[in-house]
Structure formats: C-alpha cells, structure tokens
Model the fold of this input.
Amino acid sequence: MPVIKVHDKSFETYLSEETIQQRVKELADAINADYAGKRPLFIAILNGSFMFAADLFKCLTIEAEICFIKLASYKGMKSSGNVVTSIGLEDDLFDKEVIIVEDIVDTGKTLHNFLPKLGHQQPRSLRIATLLHKSEATVYPLKPDYVGFDIPNKFVVGYGLDYNGLGRNLKEIYQVI
Ligand code: IMP
Done:
C-alpha cells in the first residue's frame, strides 16, 4: 500500500479515487431522487469541501444552485473548536431547500454552532451532506442526512482535506499511520 508523507506525518491509502467517485455518484443519485421537482441551494463550506462539492454538483440532474462560504479554522490535527462567523453567504435562504455540503463531520461542533444561524433565515428545509463522518467522535447532537463514508476516529487527508494546509490536491483519501 503506498505510503505518503505530509509535513511530519506518514499516511496510507484509505479510500481510492474510484471508491470515492462511485460513492459521490450514489449520494448525488439519492439527492436527485429526494429533490426531484425542487431546486435546492447547496451551501459548500470552504476550504475542505471544494472537491466533494464540485464532483457532487456535476452528478446532479435536477436544477440546483450552489454557493461557497467560509466558517471555521482548523489548526494541526486537533479540532480548534473556534467557529467564526460565516463569510460569503449572500443568498436569502427564506423558503429555500438548503443542503449544507461538508468534507467531514468530526465532533460536530462546527455545524452544531452554525446551523441555528441558518435556521433563523427560515429555509423550507435544511439538510447536511458530508463526504466523511467520524461518528464515534461526534459529541454534539448532529445527524448528517447524506453520508459518504462513516470512518474511524483517525486523521485523514486528501480530496480537499488538509493537514496544516497540505494534501488537499490528492485524488485519494489517506489515513494517518
Ligand atoms: P468538527 O467541528 O469537529 O465536526 O470539525 C469539522 C472540521 O474539522 C472539518 O470541516 C475539517 O475542516 C476538520 N477536520 C476534522 N477531522 C479532520 C481530519 O481527519 N482531517 C482533516 N480535517 C479534519
């Protein structure tokens, strides 16, 4: 199994490009079915979700809108827990079918703190699509609606996810050794 180095840590392949792409297509198919006849607004959370959001969006056959916002800072290999205000949300969410797009839900703190802020705008519905879910690490009451992969509580990089700024460009997802 190929081992790569990012900064000071070694990582091994965990999810191949093919496995990721197939699962993203399955999630898009589920969304296509659930939102048939509707026009959801995807709110992708930067930086980590940009690849997942792009691939998911390409597989949609329904009408849909997308915007990108920035929320939290994440330093090193531990969640900083500092959720900052969202930057870049210009759309009015009133009566919209909103789907949040995340790269990973870890403790759940980021979205748990952020969702009420969106809720105030009274969207018609509000769901979460996340590529990865560390469900055993999730301590905040949060249940993502669309989950690509439920993964163990180990640090991962690749496909948009970084370790101190590096690794986002990798087509596969790698797990720390
Ligand atoms: P949460 O608030 O603890 O759910 O953390 C969510 C954010 O932490 C994600 O959007 C990522 O930016 C970051 N994060 C959590 N786990 C990992 C990981 O294994 N690799 C890279 N980033 C991670």
